[in-house]
Automatic annotation (TrEMBL):
PANTHER family in alphabetical order: HISTONE-LIKE TRANSCRIPTION FACTOR CCAAT-RELATED, NUCLEAR TRANSCRIPTION FACTOR Y SUBUNIT C-3-RELATED
Molecular-function annotations in GO: DNA-binding transcription factor activity, RNA polymerase II-specific; protein heterodimerization activity; RNA polymerase II cis-regulatory region sequence-specific DNA binding
Domain of life: Eukaryota
Protein name per UniProt: Transcription factor CBF/NF-Y/archaeal histone domain-containing protein
InterPro entries (alphabetical): CBFA_NFYB_domain, Histone-fold, Transcr_DNA_Rep_Reg
Family statement: Belongs to the NFYC/HAP5 subunit family.
Compositional bias per record (Polar residues), positions renumbered to this chain: 1-10
Domain Transcription factor CBF/NF-Y/archaeal histone residue range list: 66-129
Region (Disordered), start-end ranges: 1-24
Gene Ontology cellular component annotations, sorted alphabetically: nucleus
Amino acid sequence: MDQQNHNTPQAIGDGGSLPNPVAGAATPYQATYQHFYHQQQQQELRTLWANQYREIEQTKDFKNQNLPLARIKKIMKADEDVKMIAAEAPVVFARACEMFILQLTQKGWTHAVKNKRRTLQKNDIAAAIGQTDIFDFLVDIIPTTEGGGEG
């Protein structure tokens, strides 16, 4: 890949849609905590995407994927308009799916840690979806209730 202007990629979804850990921060301590929390989450996302970018650049064997390419191809062919699929297309989709899952997990984990838990629960993923603009397409699929989670 071209090395020009490829320093550190910006995190996807950095549109200011971060959770508010202290609603209505009134004291200087709460405002400082909120600012620190925001900066920490932004840094985690930048690190995540920088690592992903480096991993993609170093990849030599594109056929070795964590997600099953045959299943991805089957899903792609579910659309009756799709007649032929190039060999590279499922590979690209597999990588994109991995990155999507990674970012959703990262945002869900942030919610779990904020709530002093070390187990990722359904409500953490729902909170990540509700608090991140790029996941708006999932709002109707995953209920964003904060009720007790399974786990």
